[in-house]
Fold this protein.
Amino acid sequence: MPPYIKREAKCCGSCVHFRRHYIKRGIDYYYPLDYGHCTYPRNKAREAGDACPHWKAVEEK
């Protein structure tokens, strides 16, 4: 048994509706930002640490 249990934080960075923004560095490297936008129910600017009442977990494959 692991000494801890991983719990999903209910913040925008782990939501299925969150689209993260990136900065291109060099020829083929993209640097992820803690900024993006939410697509549900309409587009709105969000940061990865924000909380939203429409949060939904990303399904693992």
In short: The chain has a mean pLDDT of 85. The first strand starts at residue 18 and ends at 25. The chain is about 0% helix and 35% strand. The chain has one domain: 1-61.
